[in-house]
């Protein structure tokens, strides 16, 4: 008997991410330090001097921390976030980056054949997560000719037509940078009474003036 992964895994696409591909540079004979990388949100100046100074003073605490398994529940972080955000710590899940949380969401809520709506172009991990669990993708395409503005009426129409089990929304959208107004998001919520709406605000700190999804 041959051992093969589930059919859904065979169809998983490669998700493009920012950052230097060191294997590709080696093939091309290009040194990484010769590349100006604009594909990832990195500070070319490095950490502020104050941060480096603070890090130099925690050598003992750091050595203690890395000699033990960390708190898998990230209790201290969740309590601090709960206090800052004004919500209960039990409503906070900490993950190793957005990708882990996106895939955990798909594993927990979606299954084979479930319909999930994504709005493209957007963060590719939504599609990968859905493919892993065998969900059926419904896609709304943002148009370059419309400056990648979301046609919310079209979104609502798709929701009413397909009744998706899940909807992924990146706000501001990655990679277009478009920020969805609160009124438009509320229209989507009103049409999605039976759907899990996943609002990804990974880059919300880059928006000068934004509404609070916690309200």
Structural class by helix and strand composition: alpha/beta
**Uncertain regions: pLDDT < 50 for 5+ in a row?**
none
Q: Would you count the extended β strands for me?
A: 4
Shape: globular
Helix count, DSSP H or I runs of 4 or more residues: 9
The CATH architecture of the domain at 97-206 comes to 3-Layer(aba) Sandwich
Using the CA coordinates, give the radius of gyration.
21 Å
Q: Report the helical percentage.
A: 25-40%
As laid out across the biggest beta sheet, the strand order is 2-1-3-4
Terminus-to-terminus distance? 54 Å
- In the CATH scheme, what's the topology name of the domain at 97-206? Aspartate Aminotransferase, domain 2
Average pLDDT, rounded to a whole number, is 90
* Oligomerization status of the protein chains: single chain
Q: Can you describe this structure?
A:
This protein is of the alpha/beta class and 215 residues long. The chain has a domain at 97-206: Aspartate Aminotransferase, domain 2 (3-Layer(aba) Sandwich), CATH 3.40.640.10. The chain is 37% helix and 10% strand. The protein contains nine helices and four strands; from the N terminus they run ααααααβαβαβαβ. A four-stranded parallel β-sheet has the order 2-1-3-4, sandwiched between helices. Helix 6 (98-109) packs parallel to helix 7 (125-133) and helix 8 packs parallel to helix 9. The longest helix is centred in the middle third of the chain and has 12 residues, at 98-109. The relative contact order is 0.11.
């Amino acid at each position: 008997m041959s051992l093969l992964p589930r059919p859904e895994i065979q169809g998983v696409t490669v998700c493009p991410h920012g950052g230097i591909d060191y294997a590709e540079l080696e093939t091309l004979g290009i040194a990484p330090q010769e590349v100006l990388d604009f594909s990832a949100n990195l500070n070319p100046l490095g950490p502020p001097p104050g941060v480096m100074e603070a890090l130099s003073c925690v050598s003992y605490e750091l050595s203690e921390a890395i000699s033990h398994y960390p708190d898998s529940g990230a209790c201290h972080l969740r309590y601090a976030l709960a206090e800052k955000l004004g919500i209960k710590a039990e409503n906070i899940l900490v993950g190793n980056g957005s990708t882990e949380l996106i895939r955990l969401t798909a594993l927990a809520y979606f299954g084979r054949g479930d319909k999930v709506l994504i709005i493209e172009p957007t963060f590719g991990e939504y599609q990968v997560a859905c493919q892993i669990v065998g969900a059926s993708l419904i896609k709304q395409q943002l148009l370059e000719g419309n400056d990648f503005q979301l046609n919310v009426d079209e979104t609502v129409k798709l929701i009413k037509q397909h009744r998706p089990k899940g909807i992924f929304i990146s706000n501001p959208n990655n990679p277009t940078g478009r920020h969805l107004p609160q009124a438009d998001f509320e229209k989507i919520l009103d049409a999605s009474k039976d759907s899990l709406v996943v609002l990804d605000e990974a880059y919300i700190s880059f928006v000068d003036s934004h509404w609070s999804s916690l309200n």
